[in-house]
Write a sequence for this structure.
């Protein structure tokens, strides 16, 4: 079972705000449901995308106040282990946009953006042909 924690530390909120340019609202049950749905769509089962890329330290991303192109309804972020494609540890941010698509950002531990994709549909997230596994290995 994957463990999801709330985004509650000041440092995490600052990081999220600096990446998205939005302020967060208090955590809701809906944000946790969105995070769990995203993990299911990426592939949380044994042998799925999440285990293939070594995903760990899952964190719920709360909804933002700003509902324009920068705003989102919630999401999830998680760390990934280094592999042949990503030579160093990284972080994956997946948020649900207001137009019912996902925004995906993949960064290395040194801050290099490996992917910044918008308007990603749920069937494009996981699996061997999914956007996350293509970038992270």
């Amino acid at each position: 079972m994957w463990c999801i924690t709330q985004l509650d530390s000041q440092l995490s909120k600052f990081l999220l705000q600096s990446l998205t340019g939005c302020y967060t609202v208090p955590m809701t049950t809906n944000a946790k449901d969105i995070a769990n749905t995203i993990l299911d769509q990426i592939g949380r089962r044994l042998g799925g995308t999440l285990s293939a890329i070594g995903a760990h330290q899952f964190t719920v991303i709360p909804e933002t106040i700003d509902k324009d192109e920068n705003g989102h309804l919630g999401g999830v972020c998680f760390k990934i282990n280094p592999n042949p494609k990503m030579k160093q540890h990284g972080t994956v941010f997946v948020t649900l946009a207001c137009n019912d698509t996902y925004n995906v950002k993949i960064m290395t531990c040194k801050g290099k953006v490996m992917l910044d994709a918008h308007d990603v549909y749920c069937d494009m997230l996981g699996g061997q042909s999914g956007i996350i596994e293509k970038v992270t290995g």
